[in-house]
Design a protein that fits this description.
The protein is mainly β and 129 residues long. 0% of the residues lie in helices and 71% in strands. The protein has a single domain, classed as Immunoglobulin-like.
Length: 129
């Protein structure tokens, strides 16, 4: 099985409420067709509940997703090892796509995620399901 290949980029951050942010990402498929089924941001300092999605993403296609993120870090802080996690189905297998990010909080307290690395794991690997 060929693992999915995607790019993940933060494209907008707007204030939703004190300590809460609407963060929008663009997911671009750089490989074979995918079916995205879930998105999550589980880090304690940059967190959103898991959300089910139902998105068919053809080769070369893009999809924008938005999550309301809880992040109340003070200006000037950096948060390392946050993740945007996507669950996808492709080629008769299920995959977890882990976009590792660094968050830089600007002088106005706005968090800015930057994708540093993307790893893909087959669901069920090492007994996970």
């Amino acid at each position: 099985m060929t693992a999915p290949r995607v790019a993940v980029a933060s494209i907008a951050v707007t204030r939703a409420a004190p300590g809460r942010w609407k963060v929008r990402w663009r997911i671009t498929n750089e490989g074979d067709a995918l079916h995205l089924t879930q998105v999550a941001a589980p880090h304690g300092k940059f967190r959103s509940p898991d959300r089910l999605i139902d998105v068919a993403l053809p080769p070369g296609g893009s999809f924008d997703t938005q999550l309301e993120i809880a992040c109340a870090e003070p200006a000037g802080q950096e948060i390392e090892n946050t993740f945007l996690i996507l669950t996808a189905e492709a080629e008769r297998g299920a995959w977890r796509i882990l976009a590792r990010m660094r968050i830089r909080v600007d002088a106005d307290g706005v968090p800015h995620p930057t994708t540093e690395r993307i790893d893909v794991q087959e669901v069920g690997f090492s007994g996970q399901r």
